[in-house]
Amino acid sequence: MTKRDPHLLLQAAPFLRRGITTPGLMMDVLLGLAPLVLAAIYFFGLSAVLVLLTCTIGAVATEWALSPARPRGSSIKDGSAILTGIILGLCLPPAIPLWMAFLGGVAAIGLGKLMFGGLGQNLFNPALVGRAFLQAAFPTAITTWSQQGTITEFWGLRLSSWYVPFTHWVPDWLRILLEGVFGPQVDVISSATPLAFIKFGGEAAPFNNLLLGNTAGSLGETCALLIIICGIILAFRRTFDWRIPVSILLTVAAASGIVWLFNHDSPSPLYMLLSGGLLFGAVYMATDPVTSPIAPRGAWIFGIGVGLIVVLIRLWGGLPEGVMYAILLMNAATPLIDRIAQPRAFGRTITGEVSA
Amino acid sequence: MSNHKPADPSQYYAEFVKGIWKENPVFVQVLGMCPMLAVTNSAMNGLAMGCATTFVLVCSSLLVSSLRTFIPKQVRITTYIIIIATFVTMADYILKAAVPDIHKELGAFIQLIVVNCLILGRQEAFASRNTPVRAVCDAAGMAIGFTFALLCLGATREILGSGSIFGFSLFGPNYEPWVIMILPPGGFLMLGMILLFFNWLQQRKLRRRRIAGRGVTT
Amino acid sequence: MTEVELTISSQRAEPSPFRLIATLGVAGMISGLALSSVYQITDPIIRANNQRELEEAVLEVVPGAAGMQEVVLTNAEATKTIYAAYDGDDLFLGYAIEGSTNEGFAGQIRLIYGYDPSIKRVVGMKVLESLETPGLGDKIKKEKNPAFAAQFENLAIEPTIVVVKDGKDQDNEIDAITGATISSNAVVDAINTENKSWLQYLPATPPAREERDLTNEEDREAASGEGDDAATDGGGE
């Protein structure tokens, strides 16, 4: 075309644009995560900082080393590796050895994202792939929950963080060095999560503690109130599809409510909603735009699926917590959901039937 | 026909070597994945499985190739299966008597050698069309290639998953084992990694050759 | 050249059905012969292996035991073979009882435990077969985690054995393995179930050691052969 026709604009889809870019979206989620990171640091002290940093370094380093994007490292700029690292860190226990946290970051990006072809191609939520890898590889370390310290014990590092890579052991000189720098090290006092009580008996956590976060658990999942507030803000900013968390939470409440009506020994719906990683998973992990359905109807199906699997695993499965596996399983089903929930582009018959 | 060519030792050698590396049943042909993934959680198990498979493959290749003129082609697969199943059952009894501990670990996977597509595949593709000596060379090469692959996978999984090799501890009592590696998902992960490594080697070789070729022409 | 022609002609002409059947028949027959002879050779070794394994397990769960013999218990519905263990002087030490459960984290757990009727205590436990998760559930095995199995070396069974999570302080309590409560429960359940169904049928006085000269090889084999027959009979009824 030599002469341009001002009335005919040749352009490829999409035609309607919003001013969102990938880095912008990632920044939004990062800001939404910031309060949780601060809460984690408040509750778990320097350990939280170290775990989050190590995960992020592991994730970013893997992105740098293995991503096919050229020039090397250019794909770091979209911020998704940083986000993956931080989300992974937030769903790990505070006393996890740092070398495992690093390995989790590597597995998250390497196995969860780059193996499928990078951002946008991955079938599973990368952070959860990293978490699942760690869970399968080091089941003891990842289910050793430590009690929270108070803010005065901020420097009280957990000794297990410093395990020499590939071992569960700290050499004496390192212990002495650490005690010289940070003061006495805290040994991990293992403590049951609120959900372990369903499965193995013990004491249920008080409602207030669940809401305010004063329980044992992963770094980012303890403070229910904060997650709810951040989630609502992010939902209003349209950072994610509100239908997914809402449908997950409604399904869990309804399903566990029905069970609870028949059997008062099982935990109440409210306890189910506030304990464990459910809120964190529903708000920050199930809503990953790459691995969740696009269409609204698909989002509902996805959420209901996650909710049902969570209740199944928590009440009748062998594990105390099932949010991770629930989301991963529904991630795998997402392409199918997308296919059946695809809205018709054109046409309905007068009777309302969808035309072929 | 091949059985009337004069015997050439280098030819036998070629039949033998190809299975070990160039046409490795696991790394190149991706055959026999079921035992490959199922029993390789330790180097010893991999080696035992490899030996059992070697016994079955070499014996049945010899028999199939010797009998190839007597077996009518309509019933050849059935006959091959009878022959293979006989040797598998023998291997099963012998392992059970000689090394009960390993037999317990391998469990049903010894009997499942009968459905290993590598074995029937070699009968149909090679043993039934070649002289016994060539068939045995081919079978031995393929079986050693298969055993090598099982041993590679078994050793890497045992080193990571238990911190030991053939039961000998490598890193002392402080080693934190990667439990995933002795579970089924570890088998898939590690096999993927090993295939990745071998493909990378292959590609690098091709690339070097191409560069070298270009060097000659210019 | 004749061989080549033969092959070609035999492949051209459709072979008669008789030939097909004959080929398979001969193959099957030879296979059967070969297998039965291998079976003849290996079967006694396999039986001896099984017997030795069982004996080792029995001697392990009843401390101080040097020999064993079978005792068949009968109740209203079934029979069960248990093993009486004796020390070097043929003095009765206790029984070894096999148990199993499907309540494990990953499928069936089979175990054998020693029981001393004179003190009414469990005196040892060995897991024979389990698929529990390596690193967590498989700590029920003595070779992976001696501490758990050691708790069964002097364990009261009245009223039942109980799994606790916060440190045992009673004689009939077992500390669960951290992170593997389900596997720990399964082991204890298996023992409780066997205790409930069989302890009341134990003979009032322990069976005397039967006189058997086990020094020469033939008698030993005969004894183990009988033992196997008894075991299969018990299972079949």
Q: What does the model show?
A:
The complex is a heterotrimer of chains A (356), B (218) and C (237). Helices cover 54% and strands 0% of the residues of chain A. Chain A has 356 residues and is mainly alpha-helical. Chain A has 2 domains: 23-144 and 148-188, no CATH class; 193-337, no CATH class. With 218 residues, chain B is an all-alpha fold. Helices cover 67% and strands 2% of the residues of chain B. Chain B contains 8 helices and 2 strands. In chain B, strands 1-2 form a two-stranded antiparallel ribbon. In chain B, helix 4 (76-98) packs across helix 5 (100-106), helix 4 (76-98) crosses helix 6 (117-125) and helix 7 (132-162) crosses helix 8. Chain C has 237 residues and is an alpha+beta fold. Chain C has one domain (1-210). In chain C, strands 1-2-3-4-5-6 form a 6-stranded antiparallel sheet. Chain C has a two-stranded parallel ribbon with strand order 7-8. In chain C, a hairpin with a 5-residue loop joins strand 2 and strand 3 (92-104). Chain C is extended and about 85 Å long. Classes of the chains: A mainly alpha (356), B mainly alpha (218), C alpha+beta (237). The interface between B and C is medium-sized, with 29 and 30 residues.
The first-to-last residue Cα distance of chain C is: 65 Å
Strand percentage of chain C lies at: 15-25%
In N-to-C order, the SSE pattern of chain B is: HHHHHHHEEH
Strand order of the largest sheet of chain C: 1-2-3-4-5-6
Order of helices and strands of chain C: HHEEEEEHEEEHH
Count of beta strands of chain B: 2
Radius of gyration of chain B: 20 Å
Question: Mean pLDDT of chain B, nearest integer?
Answer: 88
How would a crystallographer describe the biggest sheet of chain C? 6 strands, antiparallel
Structural class of chain B: mainly alpha
The total count of helices of chain C amounts to 5
What kind of assembly state do the chains in view correspond to?
A: heterotrimer
Q: Uncertain regions of chain C: pLDDT < 50 for 5+ in a row? A: 1-6, 213-237
